[in-house]
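in:
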């Protein structure tokens, strides 16, 4: 199929600025040297945040849920179950100490004396499997190993960000700018010290996108599409929303290759991903006698998300208060079960039908806070600490500023929309589920790599224009 660049030339659209202006003269050796430097910088930046705070308190409850699953796999040979007594005791200890506690340093004896294991279906299980593997190899149940792995993998994403930009725009200098920006993008660097699924969502999203754009300009794209499906199928075990990504990217390919080819580009990865999801879906049906492809939680997010804006029908953005509400009317429902989630889903749907204006207001707010008002605080628990306040002051403006600069680039270079549309598709796929259900600022970071690619492209375009004007302004030598 024709690449976006070839398609634009064939359609008569104005091509990108001359290669000499876009850094094409950069030698492969020099590019490799710069990329290696950026990877090292990315590791140092992320490692610095980890050293400063190796036991982050934010999202510690979510991290502990995956740690509990991994602990049960390693210590008890029980797969994908949690012990509520252990979860509660560990959560209370973390709240008291305001930090993430390693299972290696926690006394499970009381909780494990008479455990009542519950099959897990609320949280994706990918991280628990990785933790269990690391803890089996090391013999030490500490989160540090996962934190280091996340830092290494995310630093390697610098290379994929460069590759995505190169394949979309064919401008080496712009690709280097994007890779450099990703290496030092502090909100993501901060996030990677937290042993939780949010960091993995970014890693899998970049990986899927990189494989997809690589498939676009291959004469035989099938092997790459199979890899897209493999990455999507595995990524679903970390963040189910990545299943939307091949669909969105295939739709973005329609202007370049037509409906039939785009159907292939989206269909092959989805078939592979569905095959990889089948064992988990079968397990869920066996455990709960319900068709649950990945996880539950949609209902809870839908209902509690309505509480993002004050209301008079009882929706509150708080798990504990929501549980009390459910328990008053349905004391038989247990938290985190499919029945509990189905009850809240119906409650949320009824509320939307009865209060459509409120839902419209919530949607409008989410669109704003996921784009121009986006902010990702480092730690809301210890926000009074001077170091945290300084870090927040640095990182808070970066996300909305990056989005705005990316938007300016889109508008200023709209003639290249056939290239831009792939990054726009990534953003829409990343935000759509959360805009509909419930949005937290950490969810928006999955799109940051698309923004920095666009900002890098825009910076290169500005630099090329400035150099061109400078050359025109300098008079030619006489004689």
């Amino acid at each position: 199929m024709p690449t976006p660049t070839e398609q634009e030339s064939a359609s008569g659209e104005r091509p990108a600025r001359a290669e000499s202006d876009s850094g094409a003269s950069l030698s492969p050796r020099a590019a490799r040297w710069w990329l290696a430097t950026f990877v090292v910088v990315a590791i140092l930046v992320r490692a610095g945040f980890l050293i400063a705070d190796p036991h982050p308190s934010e999202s510690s409850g979510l991290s502990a849920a995956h740690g509990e699953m991994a602990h049960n796999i390693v210590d008890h040979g029980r797969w994908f179950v949690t012990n509520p007594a252990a979860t509660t005791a560990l959560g209370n200890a973390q709240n008291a100490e305001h930090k993430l506690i390693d299972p290696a340093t926690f006394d499970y004896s009381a909780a494990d004396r008479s455990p009542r294991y519950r099959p897990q279906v609320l949280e994706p299980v990918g991280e628990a499997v990785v933790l269990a593997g690391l803890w089996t190899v090391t013999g030490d149940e500490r989160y540090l190993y996962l934190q280091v792995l996340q830092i290494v993998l995310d630093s390697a994403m610098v290379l994929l960000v460069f590759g995505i930009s190169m394949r979309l725009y064919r401008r080496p200098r712009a690709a280097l700018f994007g890779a450099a920006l990703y290496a030092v993008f502090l909100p993501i660097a901060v996030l990677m010290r937290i042993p939780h699924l949010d960091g993995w969502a970014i890693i899998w999203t970049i990986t899927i996108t990189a494989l997809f754009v690589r498939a676009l300009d291959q004469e035989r794209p099938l092997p790459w599409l199979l890899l897209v499906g493999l990455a999507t199928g595995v990524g679903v075990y970390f963040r189910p929303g990545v299943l939307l990504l091949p669909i969105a990217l295939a739709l973005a390919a329609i202007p370049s290759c037509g409906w039939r080819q785009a159907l292939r580009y989206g269909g092959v990865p989805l078939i592979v991903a569905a095959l990889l999801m089948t064992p988990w879906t079968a397990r869920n049906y066996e455990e709960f006698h319900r068709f649950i492809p990945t996880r539950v939680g949609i209902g809870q997010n839908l209902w509690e998300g309505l509480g993002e804006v004050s209301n008079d029908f009882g929706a509150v953005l708080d798990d504990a208060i929501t549980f009390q509400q459910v328990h008053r009317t349905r004391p038989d429902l247990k938290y985190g079960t499919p029945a509990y989630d189905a009850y809240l889903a119906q409650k949320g749907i009824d509320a939307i039908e009865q209060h459509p204006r409120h839902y419209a207001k919530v949607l409008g707010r989410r669109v704003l806070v996921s784009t121009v008002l986006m902010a990702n605080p480092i730690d809301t628990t210890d926000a009074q600490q001077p170091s945290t306040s300084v870090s927040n002051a640095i990182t808070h403006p970066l996300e909305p500023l990056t989005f705005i600069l990316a938007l300016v680039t889109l508008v200023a270079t709209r003639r290249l929309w056939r290239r831009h549309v792939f990054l726009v598709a990534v953003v829409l796929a990343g935000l759509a589920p959360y805009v509909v259900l419930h949005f937290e600022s950490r969810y928006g970071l999955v799109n940051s790599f698309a923004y920095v690619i666009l900002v890098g492209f825009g910076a290169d375009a500005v630099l090329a224009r400035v150099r061109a004007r400078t050359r025109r302004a300098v008079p030619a030598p006489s004689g």
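note: Confidence is low (pLDDT under 50) at residues 5-20, 377-390.
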